[in-house]
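Minutes, project check-in
Item: structure for the 175-residue chain
Input as provided by the requester:
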Amino acid sequence: MQKNTKKMGLAAIFFALSLLSFTISAQEDKSKRPSPPATTSGEINGKSVTISYGQPSIKGREVWGKLVPYGQVWRAGANEATTIEFSKDVSIEGKTLPAGKYGLFTIPNANEWTIIFNKVPNQWGAFKYDAAQDALRVNVKPKRAKAFNEKLMYAINKNSVSLAWENAEVAFAVK
């Protein structure tokens, strides 16, 4: 009877360690996703800005209006919702946004985009996006990118943040 109890105890320990190992390796696998995690950080007027996003590639697909439909909320990346964090209060396109971490969403259209800073930064995609949680919305004009971008890229510039993918670039002013 004692032998069986020891074997069951050892089996339980082995199972728990296997489960822990699986959980840890599943968390580490994010870098092997088709749209791996990416982060860009920088400073604008003495305020640090950090953007974390899933970085999709085009892979021969038509992006704007197709893969990313016009007129619908988009997570501005892949997988988990894109997040943006400001170390201090900022002005976005002339409107105040308190320091903090936000979900960054967009509503792309051919001639104008809505940039959305949502109070719920940690969510999967835009599936549970709630407009009632928006801290700020601003509208900006897209332009043709200087170069074709196979992968979605964010950049923190001197006075703005920009998103570039395929042949489009969208920037919003930050002060």
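Outcome recorded: The first helix runs from residue 2 to 28.
No further action items on this chain.
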